[in-house]
# Entry
Amino acid sequence: MNFLVETLQVLLMSIWYNLESFVHLFVPRKRKNIEGEVVLISGAGSGIGRLMAQEFAALNTVLVLWDINQEGMKETARLAKESGASRVHYYLCDCSDKSEVYRVADQVKREVGDVSILVNNAGIVTGKKFMEAPDSLIEKTMEVNTMAHFWTYKAFLPAMIANNHGHLVSIASSAGLISCNGLADYCASKFAAVGFAESVGLELLATGKDGVKTTIVCPYFINTGMFDGCQTKWPTLLPILDPNYVAKKIITAVLTDQVFLLMPRTMYLITAFKTLLPVKQGLMLGQYLGAFSLMDNFKGRAIKKQE
# Structure
């Protein structure tokens, strides 16, 4: 196909896609039925992992919960059963350990079956400036927030590809799109998680496996305790997010095959500004929004748990 024809095709399809997006501002997208699907959630022992488990349970799915917190998982399993899950299974798994991820994944396949919706939610934060963070904590941050995604994809994606059916959900962060002062290792891990998930999504499309969907979630700080003490300078523009709201939005994104979910909605505009504005203006805007001081009063759980 020659240059002019391809260019015309791109222009016409661009108009169509923009019209389609405009229509969906007023007309909700059709939701898919995931009843009976096997949903695995890492970091399910607390926080939005637990809340997502309850939301998926209400859709009559089979739940597989992973965490390093046995008691937390038991409580999540109890709540999920009350919410309507057809079956709930939970496993101790340290997502930073590749061999353990593979071992527990094999156990899940034997005891439950193939996972068709994978939610990589486990995450940790050191809460320390780069030069103050021990090497071991930086490595742990990368292992949990980034490398664990590699290993879970390796474990569960082959079955999705074989069936051309499934959904990969990466719970990243707005810090994976725009850097913040005091979060060097966390930002690096989340930038990597976003890039990895996006690239795998493109690989799937390029190989014709369009039945395997991807959703990348980039929320601002969530009120789960992980970032306790962090303050937002302008709550109207960048509010600390309610965990229940976040969980519901993620489930809706999965049900409608939404590729990117940014929260709050102002993050879409801020992300666009980052690439469009001159650097000095971007830095000024970041200072105005509080990106230079948001970690000053950090009192969160730091590296203690995956959630």
